């Protein structure tokens, strides 16, 4: 009887078949993979680049915004910006919205972030509630506050009357209108600042705080000398985002006051809309748009530059 | 093969992107071979006019089974929406011209003076709807004939006889009398509504001499006279004739105030009366000719109201004209005018003005009261309406002086007049 070596040999473990080496898809490889960005680029070109170029071209014409014909006017629309008292006044109001909203949102956003960074009960819910308005359309937010501040049926006036006071025309003056618009915008977007600062706070290594405590730093000193410097990147991000948002403010103004009385609560964005559609001066309106673009770009670069310098100095 | 798949993927993506961005197209032919015409109305879906248009359109489509009229509702942003469509060369086949068939839209519209119904075109509309060649560009469904709206109960409570309000001084006395009764004399809405501009349009005919108006027509803005006009508005504010919530008030607030008797007067089209009756159907509201500033005769403000034009470059111009002719049939034109609540724009249509029939018979049908055109449409260049509203709004809210408002108007007038002259 012969014994087959195979019968007596101990069973061998057969290594599993190695997976075939992964090959990069032949469909998209090399430089061709960049072509996948083409749809996005096309969208960007159609909705951003083309309108930008078109807007600049319109700004050198006297187009009324709908007719087939227009005439080139050179730089007349840009020169008009320097002599237009309305534009100058509205630009100042726009700066109030931009800078005011930025300041309010940094203070509130940082305060809320510090409060909700600790181990508080219900902090998740609180964060969600504060961030929720960011998800709401500014038109809806504006309408909500319009219903609160409205003269005849507004909730605030109902409260005033219930306490024996007289109804107030909250939105009928420039001071009242600008303050309310600024407050509504700040309240709506304070959640963005809070989230940015929270991310910044949670990125600070606890060792820094512990070292400061060992060195005898009190809470105020720790905040000023440790936390604030380390929050500089978050601060820069939040300031730039809020500044751009405030300078472009449109929807809330449109709903609350329509830019009135007169143009006293208008921003450059609402003035652009009125000039384009109502005053039928698309050329001048486009020039305002280009000017606003450069104003925002310059301010953003300056703010970014200043904040980066400060950060480098502290490092 | 692979490169073909890549090309197909990219082509499909690109096509989707372009389809998404270029998807707005006007009428043409439907998939079932029907001629599809887009009719952009300026009416909301729940308005009586839209309901009437739906009924008439259904009857037209029944008679013309190869035609599909696609009625589109309008909204508050109708005007900018139309401007964008015209700028994009994507005009509807038919659209509502809301008072601008000649000055703004005629370059896009087919002339209609040779249509069979043109012989019934109301002559009163001629100065504002016809050009020097006798062409007009819209079917006039209604004529706007408006004046000083008032709440009769409020005036009677204050001992004011409406028939006696034939001068601005008499109106001033009446305003003081109702104010003494704790009622706001004039109901106004803020800049979002444009009622400040209506105020200018309504009182301007008594604020300029014929010579000044002629100069305005020739491109010479009359800054001093306009400052005087704005001065009247400033006085209304300082004398307490206007509502405290002026800036935040809307057209609805105006109507409700008038209906509830918390204000006495309004200078607006009669649509405000119809709106006011939705708040209080029993409110005793009417209108009278506007007491003039200059001591002349009281007048009404009028001109083009609801009107529909046909795109001259549309795919179905002749069908669109047939549809307009259907709308112009006496029973249809009468029903539409009744739904609007204003006098018909065609002479063979019957007016049905409901509770406003009496003032219509007394002032409009009798032909005894002059009908003045809207000031801004005749004496100011196209595009000035926004300046009219914002400057009047600024003065009414005491944010600017009449002189500042007039100076702003002068600057805008010069810019837009030179633009329209090019």
The CATH architecture category of chain A equals: Orthogonal Bundle
CATH topology of the largest domain in chain B: D-Maltodextrin-Binding Protein, domain 2
The class by helix and strand makeup of chain A works out as mainly alpha
- Uncertain residue ranges of chain A: 1-11
Q: What is the highest CATH level, the class of chain A? A: Mainly Alpha
Count of runs of 4 or more consecutive helical residues of chain A:
14
Number of domains of chain A: 1
The CATH superfamily of chain A is MetI-like
CATH architecture of the largest domain in chain B: 3-Layer(aba) Sandwich
Tell me the name of the CATH homologous superfamily of the largest domain in chain B: Periplasmic binding protein-like II
Alpha-carbon distance between the termini of chain B? 58 Å
**pLDDT averaged over residues of chain A:** 87
Tell me the Rg of chain B in angstroms. Answer: 24 Å
Describe the structure.
The complex is a heterodimer of chains A (315) and B (422). Chain A has a single domain (76-314), classed as MetI-like fold, CATH 1.10.3720.10. Helix content of chain A is 68%, strand content 0%. Chain A has helices at residues 5-8, 38-58, 76-83, 85-117, 123-135, 138-149, 155-162, 174-202, 206-214, 219-230, 232-247, 251-256, 268-278, 282-314. Chain A starts with a helix and ends with a helix. Mean pLDDT of chain A is 87; it is low at 1-11. Chain B has helices at residues 2-21, 48-63, 78-87, 126-129, 152-157, 168-180, 195-203, 210-217, 223-238, 251-260, 271-279, 317-327, 330-340, 357-365, 375-379, 385-396, 402-421; strands spanning 28-29, 35-40, 67-72, 94-96, 139-140, 143-146, 148-151, 184-186, 263-267, 285-288, 300-304, 307-310, 371-373. Chain B has 17 helices and 13 strands. Chain B is globular. The model of chain B is unreliable at 20-26 (pLDDT under 50). Chain B has 422 residues and is of the alpha/beta class. Chains A and B meet through helix 2 and helix 13 of A and helix 1, helix 3, helix 16 and helix 17 of B.
């Amino acid at each position: 009887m012969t014994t087959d070596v195979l019968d007596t040999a101990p069973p061998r473990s057969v290594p599993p078949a190695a997976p075939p080496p992964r090959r990069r898809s032949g469909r998209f490889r090399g430089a061709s993979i960049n072509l996948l960005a083409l749809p996005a680029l096309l969208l960007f070109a159609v909705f951003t680049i083309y309108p930008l170029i078109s807007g600049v071209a319109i700004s050198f014409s006297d187009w009324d915004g709908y007719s087939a014909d227009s005439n080139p006017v050179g730089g007349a629309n840009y020169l008009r910006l320097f002599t237009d008292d309305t534009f100058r006044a509205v630009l100042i109001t726009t700066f109030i919205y931009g800078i005011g909203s930025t300041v309010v949102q940094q203070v509130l956003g940082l305060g809320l972030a510090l409060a909700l960074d600790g181990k508080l009960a219900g902090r998740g819910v609180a964060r969600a509630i504060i961030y929720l308005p960011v998800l709401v359309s500014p038109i809806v937010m504006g309408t909500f506050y319009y219903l609160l501040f409205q003269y005849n049926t507004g909730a605030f006036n109902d409260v005033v009357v219930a306490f024996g006071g007289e109804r107030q025309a909250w939105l009928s003056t420039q001071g009242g209108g600008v303050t309310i618009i600024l407050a509504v915008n700040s309240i709506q977007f304070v959640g963005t600042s809070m989230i940015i600062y929270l991310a910044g706070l949670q990125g600070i290594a606890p060792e820094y705080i512990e070292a400061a405590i060992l060195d005898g730093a009190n809470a105020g000193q720790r905040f000023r000398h440790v936390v604030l410097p380390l929050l500089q990147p978050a601060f820069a991000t939040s300031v730039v985002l809020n500044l751009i948002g405030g300078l472009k403010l449109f929807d809330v103004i449109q709903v609350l006051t329509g830019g009135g009385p007169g143009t006293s609560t208008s921003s450059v964005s609402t003035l652009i809309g009125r000039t384009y559609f109502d005053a039928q001066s698309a050329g001048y309106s486009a020039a305002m748009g280009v000017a606003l673009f450069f104003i925002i770009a310059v301010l953003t670069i300056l703010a970014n530059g200043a904040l980066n310098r400060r950060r480098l100095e502290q490092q | 093969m692979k490169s073909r798949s890549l090309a197909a993927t990219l082509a499909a993506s690109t096509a989707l992107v372009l389809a998404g961005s270029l998807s707005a197209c006007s009428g043409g032919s439907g998939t079932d071979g029907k001629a599809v015409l887009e009719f952009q109305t300026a009416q909301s879906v729940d308005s009586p006019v839209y309901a009437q248009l739906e009924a008439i359109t259904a009857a037209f489509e029944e008679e013309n089974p190869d035609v599909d009229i696609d009625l589109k509702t309008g909204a508050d942003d109708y005007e900018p929406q139309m401007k964008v469509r015209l700028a994009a060369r994507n005009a509807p086949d038919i659209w509502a011209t809301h008072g601008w068939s000649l000055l703004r839209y005629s370059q896009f519209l087919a002339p209609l003076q040779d249509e069979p119904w043109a012989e019934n075109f109301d002559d009163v509309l001629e100065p504002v709807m016809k050009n020097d060649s006798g062409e007009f560009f819209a079917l006039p469904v209604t004529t706007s004939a408006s004046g000083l709206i008032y709440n009769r109960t409020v005036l009677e409570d204050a001992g004011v006889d409406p028939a006696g309000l034939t001068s601005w001084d008499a109106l001033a006395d009446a305003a003081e009398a109702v104010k003494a009764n704790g009622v706001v004399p004039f109901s106004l809405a803020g800049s979002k509504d444009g009622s400040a501009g209506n105020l200018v349009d309504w009182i301007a005919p008594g604020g300029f001499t014929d010579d000044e108006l002629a100069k305005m027509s020739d491109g010479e803005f009359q800054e001093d006279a306009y400052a005087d006009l704005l001065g009247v508005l400033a006085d209304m504010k300082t004398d307490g004739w206007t509502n405290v919530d002026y800036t935040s008030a809307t057209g609805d607030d105006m109507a409700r105030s008038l209906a509830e008797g918390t204000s006495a007067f309004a200078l607006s089209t009669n649509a405000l009366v119809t709106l006011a009756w939705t708040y209080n159907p029993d409110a005793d509201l009417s209108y009278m000719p506007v007491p003039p500033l200059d001591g002349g005769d009281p007048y009404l403000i009028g001109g083009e109201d609801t009107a529909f034009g046909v795109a001259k470059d549309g795919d179905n111009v002749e069908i669109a004209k047939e549809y307009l002719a259907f709308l112009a049939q006496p029973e249809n034109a009468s029903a539409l005018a009744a739904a609007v609540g204003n006098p018909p724009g065609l002479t063979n249509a019957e007016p049905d003005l409901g509770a406003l029939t009496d003032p219509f018979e007394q002032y409009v049908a009798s032909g005894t009261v002059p009908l003045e055109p809207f000031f801004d449409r005749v004496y100011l260049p196209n595009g000035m309406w926004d300046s009219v509203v914002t400057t009047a709004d600024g003065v009414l809210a005491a944010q600017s002086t009449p002189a500042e408002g007039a100076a702003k108007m002068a600057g805008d007038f010069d810019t837009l007049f030179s633009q329209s002259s090019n």
